[in-house]
Amino acid sequence: MAKLKTGRHTSALKAQRQAEKRTSRNKGLIKTVRVTTKEVRAQVATKDTKAVETLKKAVSAADKAAKKGVIHWKTAARKKSKLTKLVNSSK
Questions:
Q1: Could you report how far apart the first and last alpha carbons of the chain are, in Å?
Q2: Domains along the sequence of the chain with CATH
Q3: Distances (CA, A) of 46 to 13, 40, 90
Q4: Global pTM value
């Protein structure tokens, strides 16, 4: 590593790098949850038969995000419950 200017702490630089990595990972997980949720809602609206398969993907995405701590586990449970009710009522 090159010599740093005064006032630049290596620990602060490392913390910044770590925060950027975590932020990008978290954004990806949140995006997946949001996109799959929208797909399920769109398929239910058009009465598509693939809604159940997409629901499984959405539930999996919510569980992964909750496991990693990106969203709260109760938030994940609420999202899964609402989507499941929506798909079941459309049958």
A1: 61
A2: 10-90 (1.20.58.110)
A3: 50, 10, 10
A4: 0.81
pLDDT digits (tens, 9 = 90+) for 19-72: 999 999 999 999 999 999 999 999 999 998 899 999 999 999 999 999 999 999
The two three-digit tokens of residue 84, written as one number:
């499941």
CA dihedral 35, 41, 43, 44 (to 10 degrees): 160
Count Cβ atoms below 10 Å from residue 52 Cβ, excluding itself. Answer: 15
List Cα–Cα distances, 5 to 78, 86, 90, in angstroms. 49, 57, 63
Amino acid (1-letter code) at residue 83: L
Tokens representing residue 15 in the block: 């913390």
Measured CA to CA, the distance from residue 59 to residue 89 in angstroms comes to: 17
Distance CA 50, CA 52 (A): 5
User: CA 28 from chain center: how many Å?
Assistant: 6
